[in-house]
Fold this sequence. Notes:
Blueprint: H1 4-7, H2 40-46, E1 68-70, H3 71-76, H4 78-84, E2 87-90, E3 93-97, E4 105-107, E5 115-119, E6 122-123, H5 125-133, E7 137-139
Parallel strand pairs: 1-4, 3-5, 4-6, 5-7
Antiparallel strand pairs: 2-3
Amino acid sequence: MPSRTKKFRGSRTHGRGKKSGRGAGIIGGRGNAGIGKTGKIWMLKYDRNHYGHYGFKRPQSVVKANSTINVSELAKSMDRFVAMGFAKQDGDKYSVNLTDAGIDKLLGSGNVDIAIEVTVAEASAKAKEKIEAAGGSVVE
């Protein structure tokens, strides 16, 4: 079957007119071309926040995320802290320095059943209560 192109040999535009034969002419441009004119309905429907800036990005020098640990995690990983040198064991009582381990705050989720003396920059009220109930203490 002969191709349609062969039929149009010698014709300048192959029956498409001047504009539609070039690049992305018949579809109104490429990408976001005409988004404020011909593509406005699409923009209003699917990309409402296309124009404008929203919010801001805080400088990284200001942003500081606390490194935290729960009392249940602390109790489970006491052997690991002893092996790394951040904790010492005296009989059945442990003494751990979380500040040296890079942990900023002790949180009170979970249960603790061993006596631990904890040195930390910050601790929640529930964490203090649970550590003291188990026979330990919290030094801030």
